[in-house]
Design brief:
Layout: H1 3-25, H2 28-44, H3 54-81, H4 84-87
Helix pairs in contact: 1-2, 1-3, 2-3
């Protein structure tokens, strides 16, 4: 994929990827970060991906980033529910 094709991909798909992630995660800032991470991964692998497959690669990457973020959020929620005073040694 050329730089021009990459920029075309960004222009055509950025909003759709953002809406896809936002619909599932319901946090605007996290959604923006995940979109950025997805496009970064596409850019890193730009030479190995054809322009025809870029949209599919981008949405697959965004989906996997969304799943990873959901797992991290779930772990953080579990840590927040622990009462630290019960865990301390006195």
């Amino acid at each position: 994929m050329t730089v021009k094709e990459y920029n075309n991909c960004v222009n055509q798909n950025a909003d759709a990827v953002y809406r896809f992630i936002l619909k599932n995660i319901r946090d605007k800032e996290k959604a923006r970060d995940l979109v950025q991470d997805s496009f970064e991964k596409l850019w890193i692998n730009v030479e190995q991906i054809s322009a025809e497959k870029a949209k599919s690669y981008l949405f697959t990457t965004a989906y996997h980033k969304l799943i990873d973020q959901t797992r991290v959020d779930k772990r953080m929620t579990n840590l927040d529910t622990i009462n630290m005073s019960e865990c301390s040694h006195t």
